[in-house]
Amino acid sequence: MTVTTAPPPSAGSAGAPPESRRQRRRRERLAERDSEIPVELYGLRRGTVTVLTTLAFVFAVFTLIPIVWILINSTKTQANIFETFGFWFASPFEFFHTFGLLFQNVDGYGTYIQWFGNTALYAVLGGGGATVLSALAGYGLARFRFRGSRPAFYMIIAALLVPITALSIPLYLTYAKAHLINSIWGMVLPSMISPIGVYLMRTYADISVPRELLDAARIDGAGELRIFFRVALPLMVPGLLTVLLINVVATWNNYFLPLLIFNVNTKYPLTVGLGLWSDRAVNSGDASLYPMLVMGGLVTIVPLIALFLILQRYWRGGMLLGSIAN
Amino acid sequence: MRASWIHRRDRRGAWFVAPFLLGFLLFMLVPLGYAVYTSLYTYRIIGGTSFTGASNYTQTLENGLFWNGVIRVVIFAAVQIPVMLVIAFFFACVFDLGVAKWGTAFRTIFFIPFAVPAVVGAVMWSFLLEPQFGPFTRLANTLGFANTNFFGPSLILPSIIVIVIWEWTGYNMMILYTALKSVPRDVVEAAILDDTPLWKIIVRIKLPMVRPAVVMLVFLNTIGALQLFTEPQILEYFEQGAISVNYTPSYYIYQTAIAADETNLAAAMAVILAVIIVAISGISLIARRRRKEFA
Question: In terms of residue numbers, what domain contains B233?
Fold first, then answer.
């Protein structure tokens, strides 16, 4: 808090002492401020800012209503969830009791914590694998021209159009034939195939990995694989993180494919498990599942919201779309 | 000699693409091929599986229930996507111009639902809209709309639209916001010096410059909307009979494959749905290519 003057825009240039995280934040904030046109210049009437802020506030309330509801109701008993006012607390405070139930197989429908582990496993293997395969393929397509490279690229573009549903049913039929129902690889391996990831990595490698650098490394006698890992990959890190984020989230949220291919609850991911609980709670008269369903929903969304808030800088909506659109 | 060296080097590039292509072959092309193959057969309790050619396709194409679902998702898309994009574009502009307070905080809040799996989003909204105890039902009753049933025949589709708008507006806004940020500042400055009113700056300068992003979002959201499945399926758990087996094409395919166990027919339906979606997205792609919006 002692720094009162703005750091020079060239902060971070070679030789300067490494920036602290706070310094970098401040510099980014200032750069952002600098690019904005002062509101007064638009010649707005006085109340306009207030009106627009109010509208944003209204939509923020709409956005937060379910989140606030689930936070409050995770502390309630089954009876209180239905009988008391939804947006305020009611005694008894059952949060820790219900949270504990997530570690047990209460009604024989499955254990929440196991589903959580399954989801994490599928998301890490699927998302991580997708990132590795996309980086390799994207780099290969961006920096090499071999026989079949153009048809391969067009095929990947075409695959962007194939809807997920259209693919999940065929996968289910194929697994039924190949005895892959209830195999975790049936979930993980298709999650690794991400045409959008390859497309993004190709675009990113094209901008960020200079050909001259690769040629220089080749003249120094480095092998292609070594060049990829030592030269190209470090330059592709921001793009890699975006692709990783997209694919982890896609696998974490996937519902249709696991719903089709798993029929034992020990293999379920969170999405299918929670779907099963809502079915059983409502339709099998297993009302004790309601608090667990609420708590389970809360515990499912907290890690992802946290991940997004932490990695916000790497989440580039612009890259996702800008690269395709521009 | 140099040419052949480059040629040999370039051929090595195929090894980088090979792992992906292998997976692509095994987990996309083979299943799709197998689905088409399966769709040409029919299983009967007496006589087993036999080749029936296009019969599953004609059966689907003549099935009013299937088209009923297709029309429903088209109506859904025609309402949900414009409403969502107008809201998303409006707030993207407001935050881009900095004409509302606490823009960064609002942007972060709006984006939160993107981190929520559709299943959990649908479960939360099901509790909120539930016909007997849901806080929103109670609110509607208090306000004088007695016997409001958000899962009833007339309100179920609007309910699903609200849920999907809740889930996706922030994501769309974020993409439009990033696109708006790339509009050159001097263009806007020149307009300001000419005393152009704010709404004109938005409609005449900003909107045309982010048009490619808008078109892309229409296209992505349409593909998503035509595959609508999770939200109606979860709502059906909360209120049996709220939706019919043919409510959306995806849901109908699921019911045909799993509940009715008619996998051959389901395969044909999946192929038809895929063709419809690929045709729509293909047309939009060609249209954009003609206008040189797609590299």
Answer: 55-290
Cα-based distances in Å from A15 to A235, B138, B242: 21, 65, 67
**Contact (CB, 8 A) for A258 and A272:** yes
Number of domains in chain B: 2
Smallest CA–CA separation between B60 and chain A, in Å? 15
pLDDT tens per residue, range B128-169: 998 888 889 888 988 888 888 899 888 999 999 999 999 999
Contact (CB<8Å) B119/A275: yes
pTM: 0.86
Nearest to B271 by CA among B290, B255, B249: B249
Does residue B45 form part of some domain?
no
- Do B131 and B239 fall into the same domain? yes
Mean pLDDT, consecutive 10-residue stretches, chain A (326 aa), reads 40 51 64 61 76 94 95 91 86 89 86 94 95 95 87 85 79 91 94 90 89 90 90 89 85 92 94 93 86 94 84 57 37
Task: Please check whether residue A159 touches B, CB under 8 A.
Answer: yes
Identify which of A81, A228, A301 has the shortest CB distance to residue B120: A301
Q: Do B188 and A37 touch (CB under 8 A)?
A: yes
Q: Are both B34 and B133 inside the same structural domain?
A: no
- The structure tokens listed for A9 are 């825009």
How many Cβ atoms are within 10 Å of B192's Cβ, its own excluded? 15
Residue B238 lies in a domain: yes
Q: Note whether B120 and B186 are same-domain residues.
A: yes
Tell me how close the Cα of A15 comes to any Cα of chain B, in angstroms: 31
The answer on B132 and B21 residing in a single domain is: no
Regarding whether B8 and B106 lie in a shared domain, the answer is no
ipTM for the complex shown? 0.88
Domains and CATH numbers, chain A: 1-36 (no CATH), 112-325 (1.10.3720.10)
Could you give the C-alpha distances from A173 to A126, A186, B262, in angstroms and in order?
A: 21, 12, 11
